[in-house]
Amino acid sequence: MSNIEDCNAPPYYRDMYDIVCPNQENIVDHDMFIKLLVKSSLPKQTLSQIWDLVDSRQGYLTRSGLYKALALVAFAQQGKPVSEKLLQNFAGEELPKPSLGDLTDLRILSIRLRREKNPMRLGLTYHEVCALDAVQVSLVPEKKGLFLKHVEYEVTSQRNKSVVQRRYNDFVALQELLLQKFPYRMIPQLPPKKVIGADDQFIEERRKSLKRFLNLLARHPVISEDKILHFFLTFSGTDVQHKMKDHFRGVLDEFNSNEQAKEAEELVPIDSTNQLAVVREQMKQVFNGFLQLREITEKMAERSKQEASDMVLFGKELCSLANSASIESDWGSGGNETWDHLRNGMKNLHPMISNVSSAYMDLASGEEDDIVDELNLFLDILTAYKDLCDRYEQFSVSIRQKNANKLLPRRSSTNPIVIDAENQVIQQNEKRNNFFLHCIHMETQLVHTYMQILVKVLQSLVNLRTKGLSNISSLWKQMQPLVETMIPSPGATTPTSTISR
């Protein structure tokens, strides 16, 4: 088997190709391929043998060559000697899956290479963004201070394999440091701090908001690689906010450390300012639309909760009636046993009504977690984008004023040193402005990547409603036979009254 066709390759092989061949040009990146081989933990001699078998001697590797390498790695991990015959013997059979461990770092490298090869295109899919990390935020059992109750959060990062505890003020310190270093990027807002009168609902909503805040940062193609965020997600000591501020005291902003800042002018199209104005207007419309969707889905979730509550009340009333005193007066019933039948039926119906209530509650929970919270995530992004554009607008006005102030003394000065210094400041301001515009261009593309959330929301809505309402319908149908037999059928003999005439 000299070639492995894509249609015959296992899905895992195709996933690997998507990672190591980010531009989908059937040419596997050499550096990516080497890093992939190293992750197999095979001896260097074995890796050299695999390389010799798949190297096309053309300076690059094709898709088929990558598939052959993956198969050979899997065979070598099984203890088999590497040779072309292994592939030939497996003709028509399913090839084995190699063990390559966590591929997060390869995905990050793939993203970085794409940016380097085409810095004006983000080139990321929603799936790739989500694969960068998954952060969970849960409440730690409440601790009471001397005067106030303190809420703590357990933060778990899948990528860093870390579990740490954080206070709300730690999140505030993180946001301040990131705004200082990344003023040209989307930094999400934090939920408000409420010290007095914070009920369970407020605390839960804030927990969800903090989770969204961290996931947006941990999945950002630039910020996700930063040391500040890594410190927040992994440092296990105490007094986190002060340790973090001390550790990153005086951190310079991204303009001073990003290599692209030197060539930012070449990365900014001539009409960028006009395009940004158009995009900002479009984003306002998108924000308003998603805001309406969020409000509607919140009402849907509330209606499901109300249905659950109503079913609980309905069941309680049935139970109360069923447990009321038996009507034993023959004078009142005239020998009619309807009430006894009803009492027995209501007792049997009560747990079934409770199941319907639980089903509605499950539906409401799914609507809140899979629909409302996803819409909130995208609204968080759009809000961060608006804040970013507002910062640029303020920065642009400030730069124009500074440049104008620099020109005034230069016009009255003949000192070449002063003139040169002023020119350098103006040029530096222009470079920073161009870098800011370039970053906004990339952040705009990231917003478009996240727009796939709407597809996820619609899929969740359809699945939840299909499965949830089908389950509820099934529960109602289970009650049907019981309800139909609560009262004797019309053909049954009516008991005769024993009352004297």
From TrEMBL:
PROSITE patterns noted in UniProt: EH, PX
Bilayer topology: Peripheral membrane protein
Main localization (coarse): membrane
Subcellular localization(s) per the UniProt record: Membrane
Any Pfam family the entry gives: EH
GO molecular function terms noted in the UniProt entry: phosphatidylinositol binding
Name assigned to this protein: Sorting nexin 8
Source organism (scientific name): Larinioides sclopetarius
UniProt lineage: Eukaryota, Metazoa, Ecdysozoa, Arthropoda, Chelicerata
